[in-house]
Amino acid sequence: MLKKNRTSLKKSNKILAVLEVSSPIKSPNLFGFLIGESVSFFGSWMTQIALVWLVYQLTNSPMLVGVAGFSNQAMGLVITPLVGVLLDRWNLRYVLLTTQIVSIFLSSLLTFLTVSNQINFIDIMIIGTLQGIG
Question: Is the pLDDT of residue 74 over 60?
């Protein structure tokens, strides 16, 4: 093997050693949770961006865009301390499943109303507020 190739092989091995997965992430339960949470987080932000963009497309009003964005975030800010106390008493798996199913339903409803051209600002505000709660 050429000296140049040996040097590049050593460098690539060092890079791959940094990228090795640690043992806790090898757990199937944690890995499944991380993948699911990543997909859910990505979907939530896509929905929030779609809501704000849709408000602007329908109204051309920067003020209503701000109101829609605020309503989406404010409900989570208000309800989080209240529900945090109750979550200690509830089964977290069922709470997580319920919130994800509700989020899927709301995103599907938003899609259906938009595609069927029946969406209006009030519908967007209701869906955004409910998404903010979940």
Answer: yes
| Alpha helices per DSSP H over the chain | 3-18, 28-59, 62-87, 92-115, 121-133
Residues in the chain, how many?
134
Whole-Å CA distances, 85 to 82, 123, 125: 6, 30, 27
The mean pLDDT of 82-98, rounded to a whole number, is 85
| CB 72 within 8 Å of CB 55 | no
- Single pTM value for the model: 0.70
Distance CA 123, CA 116 (A): 13
What tokens does 69 get?
A: 């964005």
Quick one: tokens of 101? 């199913």
Distance CA(55)–CA(67), nearest Å, equals: 10
